[in-house]
From TrEMBL:
Molecular functions per Gene Ontology: 3-hydroxybutyrate dehydrogenase activity
Gene3D superfamilies: NAD(P)-binding Rossmann-like Domain (3.40.50.720)
Family: Belongs to the short-chain dehydrogenases/reductases (SDR) family.
Protein's UniProt name: 3-hydroxybutyrate dehydrogenase
Pfam families: adh_short
NCBIfam families, alphabetized: PHB_DH, PRK12429.1
GO biological process, one term: monocarboxylic acid metabolic process
Amino acid sequence: MDLPTKTVLITGAGSGIGAAVAENLAKKAFNVIVSDLNLSSAEKVSAKINAHGGRARALGLDVADQQSIESCAATHPEIDILVNNAGLQFVAKLESFPPEKWRLLIDVLLVGPAMLTRALLPAMRERGYGRIINVGSIHALVASPFKSAYVAAKHGLLGFSKVLALETADQNITINTICPSYVKTPLVESQIMQQAREHGMSEADVIDKIMLEPMPKKAFIGMDELVAATIFLISDEARNMTGQTLTIDGGWTIK
């Protein structure tokens, strides 16, 4: 199978993990659709890829909006690989968690990946090939205080993936979830202040005691690790790996 001829859609690819995956898959000669809620961010990443000889297109996509999802599927039926990466975070006690914010996190982190997968799956079935990769989190496996919506959504993502793996087992279609612990991304940087407020500690202590302390290796996960995991899950060598959770957590969950 000539994988570099495949087309991959990455959500939330205007920055952070999504941008890194997009840029590195483009280097491997994949056709990349860089999607993001912020179209200008997607365009910047796409332009950078094309300037370095890759093949990329920018797409404005709101994974919390069904019409946006359906439009994406209708205009891009050639998508072979879906990387569900779009995300956001909000840190607060449940009593002070704005209800609309709680629902938004669930829509973006769980409903969005499910509905986007639903929209793209028929074309994958027609071609007899598909790879769906969810960017999960260590919080799909463990809990932390003040993150009720995020933890609930990420736990739900694993259950969704297992069910879909059973439903697509009759074809060369797989769905897997990569679960890293903390990665230095804009999303993580933005929550350090929120964590400090809720825990009543300094931002430096948040990094040392909240983010790194649970990991025996005491290190942030690198973008290169996530890229390598994504490339493996796309590969033909991973064709019988489906419904699985690939945990990259510095040893967090072995204790």
